[in-house]
Predict the 3D structure of the following.
Amino acid sequence: MAGGGALSAEQKKDLMNRLARVEGQLRGVQKLIAMAETPSDCDAVAQQMSAARKALDRSFVQLLAGAIVTQTGNAENLDDAQARAAHLAAMLDKFA
């Protein structure tokens, strides 16, 4: 497989911003856990954990979608594009 970046600069910036938001959500979850005193507090923690997990899942989808666009777009020919797409499909199967 030929060279070429996995993601464009804009895709990287976008993904880094998403992950920074997830990181902030997780810090918020940690604070909620530290302050939890009643069962309803646990509901709030669970809700925020679910939101953070979904945001991380969306970041994963964005990573793969960006890689598909960039990697197949940078392919030298159809065989190279198919090989890159197969690699990304294998990643999706392995990690999703």
Observations:
- The two ends are 23 Å apart (CA to CA).
- The chain is about 85% helix and 0% strand.
- The chain has a mean pLDDT of 89.
